[in-house]
Sequence to fold (185 residues):
Amino acid sequence: MIKIVTLLLFLTTLVLTSCGIPLPLQKDLVVKDLNAVRQFATTDSTFASYVQEFELRGRIITNDGSFSVGDIPINFGDTENESFQGVCFEYPDGTKEVIVRRSWWNAVDEDYRESLLFHELGHCRLGRDHLDDVRSSSTETHKISMMNSIIIGPQKYKSYKEEYQRELYTFDTTELFQSLQIIVN
Ligand SMILES: [Zn+2]
Fold:
């Protein structure tokens, strides 16, 4: 019995540290209270290329040539929850911003960074909530959305980037299910 508890604790720790986005009850889409004001007015240049990519993909996938991120600054800072590597804050005056934990960012690769930022912009720009559904292929279980509470890991994101992005902007899982060989009943 002790062994099982220990294993469960280990697995829980592993999930939290490897993925960083926490249990479903804790949401990284945080609505601030009445007196809170946005911390930043502009985006840190570190994130410029990711914003460009989010806009480029958005224009292609939605067929909206004017699709842009708009007034959603992205900066390093305090995510206010030790489990969050990134967070979308919404303020009472209607403004929004994305805050990213610098120590996590510096420790991970480009694909993981993009997976996190696209997830946060999924909240802040696309107005999406979490979608924690999973589906199975014959060999494994897959998250069906970048809006899963636990962000898509770098290997899977790299392999199925276009399919996951299409679902992100449109909710359409057709290509993702085909590529992942999801068994559709
Ligand atoms: Zn989230």
Remarks:
- Confidence is low (pLDDT under 50) at residues 4-24.
- Residues 50 and 114 are 7 Å apart (CA to CA).
- The chain is about 40% helix and 10% strand.
